[in-house]
User: Which sequence fits this backbone?
């Protein structure tokens, strides 16, 4: 794969997208992964690309810490158009708490979220899972409450993923497969991962180091290499950047296509 920039085409594709299934207003994309890898930042990055300016629908942390900054189950919509013609894009993101050991979100809760049982605004409790009858439990989820694409978020700049996190991920993926939910991954922080991409993001598909990272991710989480998308999130930029946009748009297109395949069934 070579770095080729087709931002205008990709942006148009995303702007024109409408769900195949008329009963569904939006495709629901769930992001999960270790703490601090850039899950919330990815939602913001998508919003930036689509709105053509810096925005922050999902609060990201200002630093990296070993405790998750995001703790509530919230749906992030992205605005489309302005004024009277203002609507939202027909895809939404659920960004959740990190999977770290002890303090992280429980796999059971993510599985409930996949099935649409977690109510908007629910605060994850690392000590016990949500159960039927709890106020945060939605006993009767609609097709729109369910998750249509599951995205594993990993950092290309992190040391190995710990066994406990890998184990949680395996549990989640197994159930998602059972439910037939399409899965893919994004590798964030490629700007910090190796000198080549640090210098120029366009080197992303030339970097041997990143190629190996993607292979390692694939082996660790069981997602095929061609379903793992390297990205750089907007983090400390002041202005928009075409190379960042290009990578974000590629990943986003795949999410939309996967989600659409699922709701079409
Ligand atoms: N350089 C760089 N920084 C990033 C990237 N993605 C995220 N960051 C930074 O990493 C930090 C953590 O990002 P978040 O988006 O809050 O991570 P998260 O996965 O939502 O974390 P929790 O909600 O705490 O689990 C922030 O300071 C971001 O600015 C990236 O691709 N490149
Ligand atoms: Mg977060």
Assistant:
């Amino acid at each position: 794969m070579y770095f080729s920039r087709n931002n205008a085409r990709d942006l148009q594709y995303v702007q024109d997208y409408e769900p195949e299934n008329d009963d569904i207003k939006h495709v629901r994309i769930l992001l999960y992964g270790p703490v601090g890898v850039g899950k919330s930042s990815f939602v913001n990055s998508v919003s930036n690309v689509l709105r053509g300016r810096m925005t922050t629908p999902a609060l990201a942390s200002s630093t990296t810490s070993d405790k998750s900054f995001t703790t509530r189950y919230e749906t992030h919509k992205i605005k489309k158009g302005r004024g009277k013609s203002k609507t939202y894009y027909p895809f939404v993101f659920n960004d959740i708490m990190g999977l770290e050991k002890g303090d992280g979100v429980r796999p059971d809760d993510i599985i409930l979220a996949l099935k649409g049982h977690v109510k908007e605004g629910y605060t994850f409790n690392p000590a016990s899972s949500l159960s039927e009858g709890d106020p945060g439990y939605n006993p009767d989820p609609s097709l729109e409450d369910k998750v249509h694409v599951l995205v594993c978020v990993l950092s290309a700049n992190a040391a190995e993923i710990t066994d406990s996190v890998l184990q949680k991920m395996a549990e989640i993926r197994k159930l998602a497969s059972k439910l037939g939910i399409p899965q893919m991954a994004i590798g964030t922080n490629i700007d910090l991962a190796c000198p080549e991409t640090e210098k120029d993001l366009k080197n992303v598909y030339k970097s041997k180091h990143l190629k190996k990272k993607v292979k390692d991710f694939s082996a660790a989480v069981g997602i095929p290499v061609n379903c793992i998308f390297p990205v750089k999130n907007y983090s400390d930029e002041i202005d928009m950047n075409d190379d960042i946009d290009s990578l974000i748009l590629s990943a986003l297109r795949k999410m939309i296509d996967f989600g659409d395949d699922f709701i079409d069934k």
User: Anything to note?
Assistant: The two ends are 30 Å apart (CA to CA). The CA atoms of residues 41 and 134 lie 30 Å apart. The mean pLDDT is 92.
